[in-house]
Amino acid sequence: MRCLFAASLVVATLAGHVYGHRHTAPSPYDDGPVKRRKTLGFGPDHPHAVFYSSPYQIQTNGFTPSDSSMCPIEVAHLFIKDVLQKKATHYKIRKDSYTDKNTGVTHVYVRQVVNGLEVADGDMNINVKDGVVLSYGNSFYNGPAPVPFTNPDVAFVRNPHREACDFVATMLKPQEFQGNGDQVVLGSEHVISDELSHIHNTHCGSEVPCVSSEDPTDFRPALLKFMATATPDSKLAADIANDSEKYLSKITVEPTSHFAPSGSEAAVEFVAGNVPDAINPVKARLAYNQVLNAKGDSTDLHLVWKFEVEMQDNWYETSVSASYPYNIISVVDWASDSPIPKPAPPPISATYNVFAWGINDPERGERSITKENFDTLASPAGWHAMPVANDPSFRGSRSTSKGFWSNSTTTWGNNVFAQENWEGMNSFIDNYRPDGGKSKAFNYAYHPKITDKADALEEAKKYINTTVAQLFYTTNLVHDLYYRYGFDEVSGNFQQYNFGRGGEENDAVIANAQDGSGYNNANFMTPPDGQNGRMRMYLWNTALPYRDGDLEAGIVIHELSHGLSTRLTGGPANSGCLGWGESGGMGEGWGDFLATTIRSNKNYSDYAMGAWAANRESGIRNYIYSLDESVNPSTYKTLDKPGYWGVHAIGEVWAEMLWVVSQELIKKHGYSDDLFPPAPHTDGTIPIGDFYRVTEFGRPLVPKHGNSLMLQLVVNAMKLQACRPTFFQARDAIIQADQILTGGENFCELWQGFAKRGMGPDAKVEGQTPWGGGIRTNGFTVPMACRDYLDKH
């Protein structure tokens, strides 16, 4: 078996240098070079992918609005058939489709199915309201279907586990399906109510699309190929190459079974144990992936194994071809980093002693005693309670109640588990966290002293109570803020218990303070809805005493915003839409923009990212965020410059654009000193106050001020945009979000903001590549309809 890996490892080494960085220090706490985790992120181009938000584009094929009383799912079915133009293409509507409670827009997520298998990157998102398709994105494969794999003699020829083969044989028995045009559906009246009950329409029918399965082959060589490429341990990679049979024989394979399979659960799936360098069993399933053909003008389908691989520093979703030489076709790392800075030249509400909301870091203000923000809409049970059944650690020791609720007096609650992680491992339940006692008073000192570098780490550890309490406080406030702008249960937010409001549960954020796996960084891992997000915050050895990233709110907000953008783009069950190139860059840019927006105030200022932690006035980006082009000259064309292929550099440009656009809205609508909407009434209704505009009853809530309105548009647009969006598609989604929310009253201001940074309607890119390459042309004009208007305003 060693011949399978010898040649491929040469490519893997190159990929490691191109797409990631190997560990350079044996320990994060020595005086060697700063440790940087290795990460991979790449995938094929989709030249045929589109996002249409114009009614003229949507009605090109004669599709007309339906009856406003029609179920949005049925509207989507009709529209898909129209788009496919009677092609023999199967699909399934994913159960993470949902209706936005504020805008009334139903976001329908569709996955293509070929030969009974999902096309992993064949996505369609359709935005429907009142029977009208407002916009849609489409990356469906449009070529001929490949010949199905039908040779059972090849299946698992090297797999010693007969039960896996028997399971496959059972799954491959003919199944009875009901055909309905171009879709494959399974009739079941209770399935629609159980899995799509969050679609707000009483006219939905009983047919829910599903898929069948195909013969698999032994996935272990493909998995080993990926592990040899992904591992940061060069010795392990070499050992896998030299003696792969040893590792193959140790991998255990178990089929997964479901009592009532639906959606992707109907496909043949396996769980692999004893996988080298994986910290949990690996999920595996067969699928197709699109690969660019030799001419570069269309895609072909390749049979692949889809793996979900959780490692110490990474959580990968990857596609590896199912046959030799097991090419790695795409990789998305659900973990997102903050970049290492450039070297400097030469039921009782808890209380917390913290840097309060709006104070970005210790240089911007003093700590104060702040009460638990008891938002009855976003966190109905407060920050320290969850049902016993949802508490992953319930032993009785953390609870003052043995009834339904587990009430914690530590930094352990429904939205976040915050604790130290000095050893840098993935365990968290029994890690240390401060205990506020019966009064839940988290009041701890913070007076770090200047020490020798050898003692700096121990000095920082003395204040772990302070830093964990701060991390718990900031993370909960971000949860509540984003909830109020629409990042709720059905759209995939992070909660252990969802209060019966839909979505997948048991996925609170695991927030590790002073993580021992690195320095001068932070990262966030975002698996699909129903699996815990994981945030790791590090110490920064850029000054004495060491600076603690947990105390810089902008870094924490940036990381949590990865969870927001990943769960909203492409739907909560799809974490692979922001992996690389412009889409991956925007994942970083949204984090910077939101962190900057949250810390800003009415008196305009420029802002740097990570300035305090990095001990650099200019922060960790190429430029600080500014309206002054002499301070920040970034435009769309900037992405063509050397050094702008990475997602953080791409993200800087996107964040700068959003910052400029937001100032246009602030100029028009003014500024809200508080981004939090008013607390709900006891009956759950939201008061208008001075926060929302007065609108007709039943209309969406529209933030009144420019900064709060921009935040709402950004969140709404994430729900509208296509999977793997480009800058153009994300821009168009923001403009459409305004059309839906306000009737388009800010159309010209939005275009003017984008045009100031080269993203006007005349902007273009030629030869665009999936990792962000291409030749761009700035567009500084605005639509003709806006020119007279802007001259007058």
Explain what the structure shows:
The protein is α+β, with helices and mostly antiparallel strands and 793 residues long. It contains 19 helices and 29 strands. Strands 1, 2, 3, 4, 5 and 6 form a 6-stranded antiparallel beta sheet that branches. It has a 6-stranded antiparallel beta sheet with strand order 10-11-12-13-14-15. A 5-stranded mixed beta sheet has the order 16-24-25-23-21, with helices on one face. α2 crosses α7 and α18 packs across α19. The protein starts with a helix and ends with a helix.
Relevant terms:
793 residues, disordered N terminus, metalloprotease, single chain, hydrolase, alpha+beta, protease, six-stranded antiparallel β-sheet, EC 3.4.24.-, 4 domains
How would the blueprint of this fold be written?
Layout: H1 3-6, H2 8-19, E1 50-52, H3 55-58, H4 72-84, E2 90-93, E3 98-99, E4 106-114, E5 117-129, E6 132-138, H5 162-171, E7 178-180, E8 183-187, H6 189-195, E9 207-209, H7 220-230, H8 234-242, H9 244-250, E10 252-255, E11 269-273, E12 282-292, E13 299-310, E14 315-321, E15 328-333, E16 335-337, E17 351-354, E18 368-371, E19 385-387, E20 405-407, E21 416-420, E22 441-442, H10 453-461, H11 464-484, E23 509-513, E24 522-525, E25 534-537, E26 539-540, E27 547-548, H12 553-568, H13 581-599, H14 611-614, H15 647-669, H16 706-720, H17 727-742, H18 747-756, E28 764-766, E29 775-777, H19 784-792
Parallel strand pairs: 17-22, 21-23, 23-25
Antiparallel strand pairs: 1-6, 2-4, 3-4, 4-5, 5-6, 7-8, 8-9, 10-11, 11-12, 12-13, 13-14, 14-15, 16-24, 17-18, 19-20, 24-25, 26-27, 28-29
